[in-house]
Amino acid sequence: MKKILFVFLGLIILSCANKSDELKQQGMAMLDAKDYKGAIQKFDSAISLDDTNIDAYFNRGNAKYDLDDYAGSISDYSKAISLGSKETLPAIVYLNRGDAFRMSDRNEEAVKDYTTALDIRKDYDSALIGRGLAYLDIKDFDKAKADFELSLRIDSLNALPHFGLGEISYEQGDFDQAVHEYGRAMQLDPAKSGFVIDRGDAYYQMEKFNEAIADYTKAIELDPSRASSYVLRGDALDDSGDSDAALSDYNKAIELDPNYASAYYNRGVTYLKKGKKKEACSDFRKATELGSELAAKYADQCK
Predict the structure, then answer these.
(1) pTM for this structure?
(2) Percentage of residues in the chain with pLDDT exceeding 70?
(3) 30-34, 101-105, 131-135, 297-301: which range is least confident on average?
(4) Helix %, strand %, coil % for the chain, to 5?
(5) In Å, how far from its chain's centre is CA 95?
(6) Closest by alpha carbon to 98, among 141, 120, 147, 131?
(7) Contact of 284 with 268, CB cutoff 8 Å
């Protein structure tokens, strides 16, 4: 009788595990289709049937990460890691948790996970780049540089290490070198508007306003919906003496994002320089409402 009972229970457990895997596969299909909320529901169901399903926890973590739920993704990755071991888990589990830690500004923990991923897979380019970015965030520039340079020795055609090296140069005030590295990143990934903006920022710091304007214009062509690009180009236009064009860009930024405090503040400064105090004060008040401390100082003068 006991043997029959044990066999029956075993069949139930096996059936639950099989159903859990089936739900996991459905969740993974939804994940590939970018239906992240639907995927999470499938992974939830899979885990409810088998709470030791490592893949379900890992992939649910991926879905939460893509929804910017970094705390939720860290919880799921951690559960997957607790069910496995460094010897049995693939490096990507630690890589992805490292990414979630970095996006949560928990860079020391991110460094540990990226290092574990590299212990498992020595030539893991993504882990080197991730760790380099984490070191960059905590301003450990020497270690960041070492990781980016090692990454380039593994894959010389990856744009991200050049971006990272550009960020280091920018932070250290070497804008010429920053321009070079951002430019190399742009060559390798021409569709990435962020690289173009960063080179524009470096040109702006060098007071090469025409070059900065050209880069911000290119960034706008790549991503016309990005309000910050219009503000940045507006700043460069204003500093180059074309205040009317600058106002047009600030107007566009506000049209795209009506709660963009910097756009109101910068437009207010430009209005003030043109002697339009009424319009300037209106913008300073709006920017102050949106949390701009700089605008608040000007707004006080408008009373």
Answers:
(1) 0.87
(2) 94
(3) 297-301
(4) 80, 0, 20
(5) 15
(6) 131
(7) yes
